[in-house]
Amino acid sequence: MHDLDYFFYHFPVLETDRLILREKTPEDAESMKTYTADESLYIYWGRHMTKAERDPVLGFKNKEKRRKNGRNDHISWGIELKKNHRIVGEINLFDIQNERQGMVGYRISKAYQGMGFVTEGLKRVIRFCFEETNIQRLEAEVMVKNIPSNRVLEKCGFTCEGTKRQAKFVNIYADFNIYGLLKSDILGSAFKTEDELTVTG
Predict the structure, then answer these.
(1) Hey, which bits of 83-189 come out as E strands?
(2) How many C-alpha atoms does 97 have within 13 Å on its Cβ side?
(3) From CA 9, how far away is CA 30, in angstroms rounded?
(4) Which of 22, 52, 66, 76 satisfies CB 3.0 to 4.6 Å to 59 for a cystine?
């Protein structure tokens, strides 16, 4: 087990049956456009795409990782499919507080939605957080209307802890669910072994 600072400088490559979760590189920029530059995928994000999302190459021009108070504050895994070695989405760990709590978020290109890739990848990220770092709690906020995303969190063991009605969600006001998952929630659960990572959704 390491402090999270270690992983900010030694990127944690993770693997599942179908996926490699790894750091994104400039060579991935064209593949990334399939999910970062698709305006329809921002319906439930509460904001529009940025210039760097419209053209991912821009995001790699500044080699310095995004920092908060002078320190790195997130890890972003590219979802690489083993079958074609293309990056088709991402899973993010961010808003990390005192190395004890963090938020998760994810997105994937429309062509690969509904195949269980995000669920499979998120389960692996959860295992990493609870088995290899000091994180004790993970959270996620998802718009009520975003039914597929809510299902992903539920399949991964998250509990819906409440709903905020017409509250600020990034740059808009909407109804959104607050999900939480504790390390103690999954002790002895299906996150223990690779065999039990099989996803049907």
Answers:
(1) 87-97, 101-108, 137-143, 159-169, 172-182
(2) 9
(3) 25
(4) 52
